[in-house]
Design goal:
Radius of gyration: 20 Å
Order of helices and strands: EEEHEEHHEEHHHHHHEH
Largest sheet: 6 strands, antiparallel
Number of strands: 8
Shape: globular
CATH architecture of the largest domain: Orthogonal Bundle
Strand content: 15-25%
CATH superfamily of the largest domain: Transferase(Phosphotransferase) domain 1
CATH topology of the largest domain: Transferase(Phosphotransferase), domain 1
């Protein structure tokens, strides 16, 4: 029996593709709920996007981590490259925090989980047993999903930097890839090398965004941020000043964690594992709803309009067709 994908609503959209909820009918006749990330059609950047897309699939499959949505298959549907993954039934934490003021304890538990997952990612090895030296490079609230059971998943490794013999996207490792509000200051220096503490900074900036309702550097444009990034004194002073924007129910221990993760000097930031332990400890001192209790109240991501594949039943193409798509058409 040929595999068929019954595509539902579009629940995510980015620069290079869309994410759908779907049902996959397997060769054995089982019907599985899945998520499907589909690469957009041809564009001037398609060749690089295809390489990064395939790299993302390899990363997620190699990690096999409970804090990362499981990869089931890399295939082609409707003439486009697609990654079929575990379906996470819940919103991203950024959206959840924007709907209403979130319980502090739940947020701390969510970020402790994210930090623990990132720590494992930073220490991951490839299938040859060599260190991957993986850096996510785009940690932000919208890339942290919370399911209805209170489990957090780190998603979107599409711009991740890693070292492996299987890597395909070997060019365009620009240090400015990512989201401005969550980028460590050293990333604007092209002499710097990918480092796990880039993700630690982004994790701290994301936590601040969820507890303050605004970016740690405010609404500054890239020119102003670049100016701050060139001075450790100015950057660290801005971080200290930003702490006044936190909610009044955020405990002092969290202030300390944030100021350490947001330091201008990368070597002075803690590891992701240290952040996870510190946030776990801080969460236990806070009253209120925990992550599991809060997750039960969160709503499924809204459906996005103008989704080309929504409502279609599509044949899942054999991997050989994917290779032909890459070699013959790009």
């Amino acid at each position: 029996m040929a595999r068929t994908l019954y595509v539902g609503a579009c629940i995510g959209r980015g620069q290079f593709g869309e994410v759908y909820q779907a049902e996959l009918q397997t060769d054995g006749g089982l019907v599985l709920p899945v998520g499907v990330k589909v690469l957009h059609g041809r564009s001037p950047s398609t060749a690089d996007a295809v390489a990064r897309f395939r790299d993302e699939a390899k990363i997620v499959a190699a990690l096999g981590h409970p804090g990362v949505a499981t990869a089931y298959d890399l295939c082609r549907i409707d003439g486009r490259l697609a990654l079929i993954t575990e379906l996470v039934r819940g919103p991203d934490i950024g959206t959840a925090c924007n709907v209403e003021e979130p319980p502090v304890r739940a947020v701390l538990e969510a970020f402790a989980s994210a930090a623990s997952t990132l720590s494992d990612c930073h220490q991951a090895t490839d299938r040859f047993g060599a260190p991957m030296r993986l850096v996510h490079r785009d940690v932000k609230p919208s890339n942290l999903l919370v399911d209805r059971h209170g489990l957090l998943k780190v998603i979107d490794f599409g711009v991740a930097w890693f070292q492996s013999a299987d890597r395909e996207a070997r060019s365009r490792d620009s240090h400015v890839i990512g989201s401005l509000s969550f980028m460590a200051p050293e990333r604007f220096d092209r002499r710097s090398r990918g480092h796990p503490r880039w993700d630690v900074y982004a994790l701290g900036a994301s936590l601040y965004r969820c507890l303050a309702g605004r970016p740690v550097m405010g609404k500054r444009g890239i020119g102003e941020v670049l100016g701050l990034a060139g001075s450790s004194i100015m950057w660290n002073q801005r971080v200290v000043g930003a702490m006044r924007g936190l909610r009044s129910d955020v405990p002092p221990a969290v202030w300390s964690i944030l100021m350490r993760t947001l330091r201008h000097e990368a070597k002075e930031r803690p590891s992701a594992a240290e952040v996870a332990d510190a946030l776990d400890l801080a969460a236990r001192s806070v009253e209120g709803k925990n992550l599991r209790q809060w997750a039960r109240e969160l709503t499924w991501p809204r459906e996005l309009p103008d989704a080309e594949l929504a409502g279609k039943a599509l044949r899942v193409e054999h991997p050989d067709d994917v290779r032909r798509l890459l070699t013959d058409e790009f």
